[in-house]
Amino acid sequence: MNVVGQVRKGAYFDSVTLMRVGKEIAGLPGITDAAVVMGTRSNKAILKSSGLLPPTFNDASDTDLLVAVKANTETAAGTALAAVDGLLKKRMSPATTGGESHPVSLGGALEVLPGANLALISIAGRFAGEEAMRALENGLHVMLFSDNVSLEQEIALKKFARKRGLLVMGPDCGTAIINGVPLAFANTVNRGNIGIVAAAGTGLQEVSCIISNEGAGISQAIGTGGRDVKKEVGGIMFLEGLRALAKDKATGVILLVSKPPHRQVLSRIAKAIKRIHKPVVTIFIGAEAKAGGPSTLEEAALTAVALARGKKPEDVAKQLVARDAEILRIARREAGKRTKRQQYVRGLFSGGTFCAEAQILLSNQLSNVYSNAPAGRAKQLKDSLKSQKNTLVDLGEDEFTVGRPHPMIDYSLRNRRIQGETADAETAVILLDVVLGYGANPDPTAELSGVIRQASRTVSVVCSITGTDRDPQNRSRVEAALRKAGALVMPSNAAACKLAGRIIQFLGRK
Amino acid sequence: MMLISIGDRVEEGLYRFHSRFNRAVNFTQGEHLVSVVAEEIGDGPLNIVMRDLGTGQTQNPLEIFADKIVFEDGEFPFTNRHRYCSTLECETGASPRFSDNLSLFGELLRTMSHPKSLAFLLDDQRIQNFHSGFERAFVEQAKRSVNQVFHGDRLNGVRSLSGCGIGLTPSGDDFIAGLLIGLNLRGESFRGLVNQVFAAAQTKNIFSSSFLDLARQGLLFGRMKDLILALLHGGQEAVRNSAEKLFAVGGSSGADLGTGFLMTMRPEVRVS
């Protein structure tokens, strides 16, 4: 490692500039660590303990600015130091700068970016509603990532927004893609002519990724938050999103994703669809699919792609029948590897929508399906920490996330559970979802490979991956690594569930 | 340009140009620092607030008279009406709201302050915002020093916290300023400790030293004064608004100052 430094005698820059420059230097190629700090005794001690203290710093004083760089090569270190002058001179220019700033209020944020038309709000729920109202009053659309916003506040916000022609995505809205920009937990997908309205976050991620991986693309993906389609909220934003996509010239096909809306809301949605002169595909996970309509997120996404390409939805069914034959072949092979005692599937999900979809699909294939968040015919688990027969656990439920990051980010809880389920002699299949994209765990391979390698010695590990090759984690790379570790990687949650169910069915026939 | 306010500790004299930032131009006379600042920075005991402060490049001196200043070749008259008063006479024990408001302020520090601020001392989860080797070593040193300040050899803790961290006024100095403001607010019995802490935190950095000296004297810049008034007499909305404004000071400076202040105001902190 090359550690070099620069002492800038009596150089004064404001704190924001120093923080920005420190961050920009650290991000230069070949740089492993950097610091831009005043040359105080304490800072020199910290630099020393972090291996960033070149001998030239020994004589520096409180009034000197120190620039320390640790680099892989001498050239990279030299280039970084040479860049310091330019970086220090570069002033923050509101709304045009690529540098990062940290406004701490909506007013401050609007000063930095006066042309903004959307506010993403992610603060403690008790404050979030009020902040969202301020944003709406300033004419901004709102994505409300925060949860714990009261129902009354949600309704008030959405009614206010509707009057002003604005969207309120949320509360508890984890995903949206607006004008090609992924917001919060979202993926880097192709742009195209399929517009999505979703009251199911991971559902939106799944369909947008499948569409993109099929070579089609997304015009807009509007999240609404799961509560929007309940009776009390009445689907205000789901309907507004639908109207917006109906008017949007760049949208040729509309895809609606949700858990089953309340029947009154469903009836409003049905009426709204009738007035739209564009193809509309719906997937309400767990609701009775209309005859010939899609029954999984995957089928819905593929149907939207077919329609966007001017093909018939029936073509999708043919495509999936061929894939199901392959699933049967793999299931038979896997079942042959398991012992007689192994007879159950244990699904450990980070995405709530995936867990719900798994329950619906597996309840059609198997009996005795249990969950901590039951959907369809699944039964309530007595203890969320203890599996019963075929168990599907939503690890994103509040009972698991209080005081710790979401399981899409922090895999530690799920990894421990994988080990526990593997040790259970009755487990035949471990079913997992792996969600990529912004906000998700940056290196799922490193976190999962070890536990999957160990688990796959005694059980079948079936995974779906939600993501694209343009996501920061790169879907193909993650898929190759998980396969190498021993996982059976399927292209969708629905396909993974079908495979898991088939393996258990074959074991039942043994 | 238009003069909006002038701090109550700005004295007459000729000041030499020292440095220029995005929204401030700094001048010195010996060890005495005066800053001409934009409105977004706001009032302070040693601030002259100007509307439409430009991004000029001149390094002309600043002249301050009894009734006008001469800055960048322009004359700007002022009267007593323009003087900002940086002192605050109050007693926290007399306010029924103070304790609840202080808890709210703590929550705001944990949830809304700059990710790299010392608010990690209130919430371990925020340590994940510190990534580089330097930042991680800084976190460890700050934790050790602050622990000493409140539970060990207090002055030794102050000495190792002084000058510690990122920023023109390093985070540790901002924290100590918050500590001094808090101790002053807690009353006369803490006066001796205020002087000891100030002596232990001596630095040659003129910005830190000026800031600490003002805090030692209980002189407050506008945003801190507003926060204290909101904590004493305001509702939740007032606390929230003034906290937001404080957090907008410097990179993490406002939040660092706020963390030092909050930790000092906890009732378990004693003189000895």
Give a brief rundown of this model.
Chain A has 510 residues and is of the alpha/beta class. Chain A has three domains: 2-89, Alpha-Beta Plaits (2-Layer Sandwich), CATH 3.30.70; 106-317, Rossmann fold, CATH 3.40.50.261; 318-508, Succinyl-CoA synthetase domains (Rossmann fold), CATH 3.40.50. Chain A contains 17 helices and 19 strands.
Largest beta sheet: strand ordering of chain B: 8-7-6-2-3-4-5-1-9
Tally of distinct domains of chain A: 3
Low-confidence stretches of chain B: none
Q: What percent of residues of chain A adopt helix (DSSP H or I)?
A: 40-55%
Number of helices of chain A: 17
The share of residues in helices of chain B is 40-55%
For the biggest β-sheet of chain A, the strand order reads 15-14-16-13-17-18-19
- What is the architecture of the largest domain in chain A at the second tier of CATH? 3-Layer(aba) Sandwich
N→C terminal distance of chain A: 59 Å
Biggest interface, and residues per chain?
A-B, 43 and 51 residues
Total number of β-strand segments of chain B? 9
Strand content of chain A: 15-25%
CATH class of the largest domain in chain A: Alpha Beta
The rough form of chain A would be described as globular
Structural class of chain B: alpha+beta
Radius of gyration of chain A: 26 Å
Q: Give the low-confidence spans of chain A.
A: 91-100
Main sheet record of chain A:
7 strands, parallel
N-to-C SSE string of chain B, H for helix and E for strand: EEEEEEEEEHHHHHHHHH
Mean pLDDT of chain A: 90
Characterization of this structure:
The complex is a heterodimer of chains A (510) and B (272). Chain A contains 17 helices and 19 strands. About 2% of the residues of chain A have low confidence. Chain A is globular. In chain A, helix 7 crosses helix 10. Chain A has a seven-stranded parallel β-sheet with strand order 15-14-16-13-17-18-19, with helices on both faces. Chain A is of the alpha/beta class and 510 residues long. By secondary structure, chain B is an alpha+beta fold. Chain B is 43% helix and 17% strand. Chain B contains nine helices and nine strands. Chain B has a nine-stranded mixed β-sheet with strand order 8-7-6-2-3-4-5-1-9, with helices on one face. In chain B, a hairpin with a 2-residue loop joins strand 7 and strand 8. In chain B, helix 1 packs across helix 8 and helix 8 crosses helix 9.
